[in-house]
Write a structure and sequence with these properties.
With 332 residues, the protein is of the alpha/beta class. Helices cover 28% and strands 28% of the residues. The longest helix has 23 residues.
């Protein structure tokens, strides 16, 4: 494409009636600052993308903006010696879909420090099947390991198990030898979760209501993408010196618990931020994903859509109606 050419993009605008998102022909000249231009091949839809496109949360800070917090593709032009034309690269988070045009487009221009090489183990499509959700799941696993968790210490809980973070966390933890218990509001998906590696599936209702500040010890560790009462109950049930990695807020941003698990059981609550994680942390997470994620399990989680279908899926993901991972073919 020449610098003057248009390309297909999903653009979100803001008017009196709220946010509107539609496929448009976007001018290359209107791309934002950056020293690497990427011919995007795939993106994905995460919970944060659902919040951004629907306006449920003020993720998008400037309008109009191309949303999409993830992208993967091939370098088209580069002013940085670390990246050459033809290199396969990905971006997770940073300012994408907040103040910088994101991944729902056939082209992106970004600062080179945001780019990560796509591991040899993955295609660009598989990299987006992982996306921010899977990369976040790996950050959670790294936090549990940092807290000293080992498979012989007992069950590890994964909440929001049918979602992107949950699905990949189950696959990762089970391959690493942990006995994983999956918490979900859709028990009809138990076979899917067990195929990913869950040894047991429980109803999220057992965790989502107000509970006692300290409860019977059950979990050696946990990955929580839900927040609110669920996270408070998980902490209250975590074993002595256990670690809980918190990365989401599907139930709510509040944490209606107490200090009891921390001061009576020495529980560690590890906060997980994927948006601004340092580059060296991202490189380690993607290295571990390449080593520890079974791509055959990953394949069972994937649904594929085109750009025009993204707004509908974005709304569904907030309602808990999306299983696993959705990849976006930006060229259809």
């Amino acid at each position: 494409m020449s610098e003057q050419a248009n390309f297909k993009a999903l653009l979100t605008t803001k008017g009196e009636g709220g946010l509107q998102t539609a496929v448009v022909d976007f001018p290359t000249s209107d791309l934002m600052a950056g020293d690497v231009t990427v011919a995007v091949e795939w993106s994905t839809i995460n919970y944060k993308d659902g919040l951004a496109i629907t306006g449920r949360a003020p993720v998008i800070g400037v309008f109009p903006l191309i949303p999409g917090i993830d992208l993967a593709g091939v370098v088209e032009a580069s002013e940085d010696d670390r990246f050459k034309v033809g290199d396969r690269v990905l971006v997770n988070g940073w300012a994408l879909s907040q103040t910088h045009h994101g991944g729902y487009a056939q082209k992106a221009r970004v600062p080179s420090d945001w780019l990560i090489p796509v591991p040899e183990a993955f295609t660009t499509r598989e990299a987006m099947a992982i996306g921010t959700a899977g990369y976040t799941a790996m950050l959670c696993v790294l936090a549990l390991e940092h807290g000293g968790l080992t498979p012989d210490q007992g069950d590890v809980l994964v909440t929001g198990a049918n979602g992107g973070v949950g699905s990949i966390a189950i696959a990762l933890l089970s391959k690493l030898g942990y006995r994983v218990v999956a918490s979900t509001g859709r028990l009809e998906e138990a076979d899917y979760l067990k195929a990913l590696g869950a040894a047991e599936v429980i109803d999220r209702a057992t965790l989502s209501e107000p509970g006692k500040p300290i409860q019977a010890e059950r979990w050696a560790g946990a990955v929580d993408s839900v927040g609110s009462h669920t996270l408070a109950n998980v902490l209250a049930q975590t074993k002595y010196r256990g670690t809980v990695a918190a990365c989401g807020l599907a139930q709510g941003m509040d944490l209606p618990g107490s200090v009891a698990p921390f001061i009576l059981r020495n529980v560690t609550l590890a906060g997980i931020d994927s948006v601004n994680a340092p580059r060296e942390v991202r490189l380690e997470a993607w290295r571990r994903l390449a080593a520890d994620l079974d791509v055959t399990k990953l394949a069972s989680t994937i649904t594929e859509v085109g750009l025009a279908e993204v707004p509908g899926v974005a709304a569904d993901i907030l309602q808990g109606r999306v299983r696993g991972r959705t990849v976006v073919d930006v060229n259809r």
